[in-house]
Amino acid sequence: MFRKICFIFCLVACSSFAQTKNCEEYKIGEFVYPDNPNKVSVRKNTIQESYNNGKLEMQWKITWINDCTYEMVCQKVFNPSIPIKIGDRIVTTIIETDAKCYKFTYVVYNEFYPNGFVSPEPGKMCRK
Protein backbone atom coordinates (compact mmCIF):
# COMPACT_ATOMS: atom_id res chain seq x y z
CA MET A 1 0.00 0.00 0.00
CA PHE A 2 2.82 2.39 0.91
CA ARG A 3 4.48 1.73 -2.47
CA LYS A 4 1.25 2.53 -4.31
CA ILE A 5 0.86 5.81 -2.46
CA CYS A 6 4.51 6.74 -3.16
CA PHE A 7 4.09 5.85 -6.83
CA ILE A 8 0.94 7.96 -7.17
CA PHE A 9 2.60 10.86 -5.36
CA CYS A 10 5.62 10.70 -7.70
CA LEU A 11 3.37 10.51 -10.74
CA VAL A 12 1.36 13.56 -9.68
CA ALA A 13 4.52 15.50 -8.78
CA CYS A 14 6.14 14.78 -12.13
CA SER A 15 3.05 15.67 -14.13
CA SER A 16 2.69 18.99 -12.34
CA PHE A 17 6.14 20.01 -13.60
CA ALA A 18 5.38 19.10 -17.20
CA GLN A 19 5.36 22.13 -19.45
CA THR A 20 2.17 22.64 -21.42
CA LYS A 21 2.05 24.31 -24.79
CA ASN A 22 -0.57 26.94 -25.46
CA CYS A 23 -0.32 27.23 -29.23
CA GLU A 24 -3.69 28.96 -29.56
CA GLU A 25 -2.09 32.23 -28.42
CA TYR A 26 0.19 32.23 -31.48
CA LYS A 27 -2.39 31.75 -34.23
CA ILE A 28 -2.98 35.50 -34.62
CA GLY A 29 -0.66 38.43 -33.96
CA GLU A 30 2.59 40.20 -34.81
CA PHE A 31 5.77 38.24 -34.25
CA VAL A 32 9.49 38.96 -34.53
CA TYR A 33 12.62 36.85 -34.56
CA PRO A 34 14.57 37.87 -31.41
CA ASP A 35 17.87 37.56 -33.31
CA ASN A 36 16.54 39.70 -36.19
CA PRO A 37 13.85 42.15 -34.98
CA ASN A 38 13.65 43.77 -38.44
CA LYS A 39 11.85 40.67 -39.69
CA VAL A 40 8.19 40.77 -38.66
CA SER A 41 5.46 38.24 -39.39
CA VAL A 42 1.84 39.34 -39.14
CA ARG A 43 -0.49 36.36 -38.82
CA LYS A 44 -4.23 36.93 -39.20
CA ASN A 45 -6.57 33.97 -39.52
CA THR A 46 -5.49 32.19 -42.72
CA ILE A 47 -2.93 34.74 -44.00
CA GLN A 48 0.59 35.55 -42.87
CA GLU A 49 2.56 38.51 -44.19
CA SER A 50 6.35 38.62 -43.89
CA TYR A 51 8.03 42.03 -43.57
CA ASN A 52 11.69 43.03 -43.56
CA ASN A 53 12.53 46.57 -42.41
CA GLY A 54 8.86 47.49 -42.76
CA LYS A 55 8.58 46.30 -46.38
CA LEU A 56 6.20 43.50 -47.31
CA GLU A 57 8.24 40.65 -48.82
CA MET A 58 5.90 37.64 -48.92
CA GLN A 59 2.33 36.58 -48.29
CA TRP A 60 1.47 33.07 -47.13
CA LYS A 61 -1.74 31.05 -46.83
CA ILE A 62 -1.91 29.39 -43.39
CA THR A 63 -3.64 26.08 -42.72
CA TRP A 64 -3.57 24.71 -39.18
CA ILE A 65 -3.04 20.93 -39.28
CA ASN A 66 -3.54 20.50 -35.53
CA ASP A 67 -3.29 22.67 -32.40
CA CYS A 68 0.46 23.25 -32.72
CA THR A 69 1.31 22.52 -36.38
CA TYR A 70 0.54 24.67 -39.39
CA GLU A 71 1.38 24.73 -43.07
CA MET A 72 2.29 27.91 -44.92
CA VAL A 73 2.04 28.04 -48.71
CA CYS A 74 3.61 31.04 -50.43
CA GLN A 75 0.94 33.01 -52.31
CA LYS A 76 2.84 36.16 -53.30
CA VAL A 77 6.49 37.27 -53.41
CA PHE A 78 7.07 41.04 -53.45
CA ASN A 79 10.88 40.93 -53.26
CA PRO A 80 12.36 39.06 -56.25
CA SER A 81 15.74 38.63 -54.52
CA ILE A 82 14.22 36.23 -51.97
CA PRO A 83 14.85 32.55 -52.82
CA ILE A 84 11.21 31.62 -52.17
CA LYS A 85 8.71 31.03 -54.94
CA ILE A 86 4.95 30.95 -55.15
CA GLY A 87 3.81 27.48 -54.10
CA ASP A 88 6.75 26.78 -51.77
CA ARG A 89 5.55 25.24 -48.51
CA ILE A 90 6.77 25.34 -44.93
CA VAL A 91 5.30 23.06 -42.25
CA THR A 92 5.94 24.49 -38.79
CA THR A 93 5.49 22.71 -35.46
CA ILE A 94 5.46 24.70 -32.23
CA ILE A 95 7.46 22.67 -29.72
CA GLU A 96 7.59 25.02 -26.73
CA THR A 97 5.77 28.14 -25.57
CA ASP A 98 6.09 30.67 -22.79
CA ALA A 99 4.36 33.94 -21.97
CA LYS A 100 5.69 35.82 -25.00
CA CYS A 101 7.65 33.48 -27.29
CA TYR A 102 7.54 30.10 -28.93
CA LYS A 103 10.14 27.70 -30.28
CA PHE A 104 9.45 25.77 -33.44
CA THR A 105 10.81 23.29 -35.92
CA TYR A 106 10.03 23.46 -39.60
CA VAL A 107 10.25 21.51 -42.84
CA VAL A 108 10.66 23.35 -46.17
CA TYR A 109 9.20 21.88 -49.36
CA ASN A 110 10.26 23.43 -52.68
CA GLU A 111 11.79 22.52 -56.04
CA PHE A 112 15.16 21.79 -54.39
CA TYR A 113 13.68 19.78 -51.51
CA PRO A 114 10.52 18.07 -52.83
CA ASN A 115 10.71 15.54 -49.97
CA GLY A 116 11.36 18.28 -47.42
CA PHE A 117 14.33 19.91 -45.72
CA VAL A 118 14.16 19.62 -41.92
CA SER A 119 15.49 22.57 -39.93
CA PRO A 120 18.77 21.62 -38.24
CA GLU A 121 17.81 23.44 -35.02
CA PRO A 122 14.66 25.07 -33.65
CA GLY A 123 13.72 28.65 -34.45
CA LYS A 124 12.18 31.17 -32.08
CA MET A 125 9.57 33.90 -32.54
CA CYS A 126 8.17 36.35 -30.00
CA ARG A 127 5.18 38.65 -29.83
CA LYS A 128 6.05 42.12 -30.98
Characterise the protein shown here:
This protein is mainly β and 128 residues long. The relative contact order is 0.16. It is built from 1 helix and 9 strands, in the order H-E-E-E-E-E-E-E-E-E. The protein has a single domain (20-127), classed as Lipocalin, CATH 2.40.128. An 8-stranded antiparallel β-barrel has the order 1-2-3-4-5-6-7-9. The protein has one helix spanning 2-16; strands spanning 29-33, 36-44, 47-52, 55-66, 69-77, 89-97, 101-109, 117-118, 123-127. Residues 1-18 form the signal peptide. Keywords: Signal.
The CATH class designation is Mainly Beta
Kindly report the average pLDDT value: 88
* Overall geometric form: globular
Q: What structural category arises from helix and sheet content?
A: mainly beta
Strand content: over 45%
Uncertain runs with pLDDT below 50, 5 residues or more? 1-18
- How many separate domains make up the residues? 1
> Helix fraction?
10-25%
Quaternary structure of the protein: single chain
Measured distance between first and last alpha carbons? 53 Å
CATH-defined architecture: Beta Barrel
What pattern of helices and strands is seen along the backbone?
HEEEEEEEEE
Query: How many beta strands in the DSSP annotation?
Result: 9
Per DSSP, the total helix count is: 1
Q: Round the Cα radius of gyration to an integer and report it.
A: 19 Å
Largest sheet: 8 strands, antiparallel, barrel
